[in-house]
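Reopening closed ticket. The problem is back. First fold of the pair:
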Amino acid sequence: MLTPPERGLAELFAEDPMTHPLTYPGRLPPTSGVFSGDRYVPLRAVDGDAWTLGGEEDGVRLDEHLARLGAEPLDRRHRVIAVGSNAAPGQLYRKFVNQRVRPVIPLTLTDVHGITPGVSAHINKYGYLPAAPVTVPGVVSRLFVLWLDDAQLEVLDASEPNYDRRLVPDDIHPVTLVSGVRLRGCHIYVGKHGCLTGADGVPYPLESQRELIARLLDSSAALKKLCGDSPDEFIDKVKDIAVREAAYALFRSEGHALPQPELSLLAKISKSGALN
């Protein structure tokens, strides 16, 4: 029989946004941990930038755990900040389940300065409006960083056709582990479509899909005519690519799509590791 903490971790995989769009961004873990297919094992920070496992492997150091599995150590992995569903184990499971890549991926909680989760000005083919990073001076966001090997990064990149992966400038947007250790060389997925804003031009914050979609429908008679009166109708109708394209056009024509040059012009990393 599972203990209450174990049941809580198992429930992280109960739903995912691809099959339940109104649950976006999915069930996020309460702590740092290691995602490995259908399991999420909690992590505790020790000695600044070292980690130990909880659960059944309580006290085992993360580097030892990765070595036992034949997985790459942390210092040979790419660091990617998750602003949306990439931090949800259920979503990661869907992205990796049919790939020939072993998904042993540490996720560590960090404080990211000057960046917060907003909403991309496009609609995913599954029906939800996904997250996009937005810059807000002075804000500090508690976000997960995924530690990915080369093959895992390639899979994640392929799952993000509406985003470009960019290098986060350490001097402008510092990233710090909850233990206080500064991380350098983190990446982030920047939306190709800009971010959604209200009539005042202020970017929408990431919120529950049901509340977000209801807000959008209430703010645009044209969008309501196109996509229905409720979030459930919206999800059903935008599965049609023609409806999604028409909704994109409305976002732009009604002034709700804001370009993000401060993020889209950040340095891009090639597969060789060189800056472009």
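Second fold of the pair, where the issue appears:
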Amino acid sequence: MQVIELWRYPVKSLQGERCEAVDVGPEGFVGDRAWALFDTATGYGLTARRVPDLLFASARTTGGRPDVLLPDGTVTGDDAVLSDWVGRSVELRPASHPGPRTYENPADLETESRWNPFSGADGAFHDNADSRVTLLSTGTTGDWAPRRFRANVLLDGAGEDELVGQRVRLGTAVLDVVAPVARCVMTTRPQPGGIGRDTGVLKTIHRTHEGTLSVGAVPSTGGRIAVGDELRAW
């Protein structure tokens, strides 16, 4: 399989940046999920599970506090502007911010009338420590838009499930592929680029793929990955 797209998401649940090459460190892609929005009243982190509009803003890396591009074209990193857009008081926090990692989370994807909090991983704002880099193939996505699944690495080909338990090389980075990635209501959310709301996506994933889609990896050796690199067993 060969790398055809690389994606970094500087702010959790916002759209990210398509990259030609990325550096890989212990937390995954350098700059990936390095920031997140938190409700200052409740202390809970926000994700598009509970606040779907987050998916219509995007973030880009600046070397410091990221720039956020809002749907109306405003570019900002200011908490007051972001709060006005979200409709509640929020704060853009870096992964180095102390405190608990608890996020709002719907318990019922159909009605979204209830929600239960969940706790995320330490370090970068990944949902769990077993998935610092996600790999997905075009053979798996089929007719679905790959961007719906927000993977870091899109591979041309098929067969990423068979990589679980293996060590692989991409570019100069070495990754341990540890587990399939469990999927949630995020896969059903509308996104820019004509990706509509579709609850059937998650139902199909549960029916045909045991609730998972793509595989998660943790870096064994840092390095650099570029579009066009071939995935090799290591």
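Update: turned out to be a display glitch only; the data is intact. Residues 108-112 have pLDDT under 50 and may be disordered. The radius of gyration is 17 Å. Please close again.
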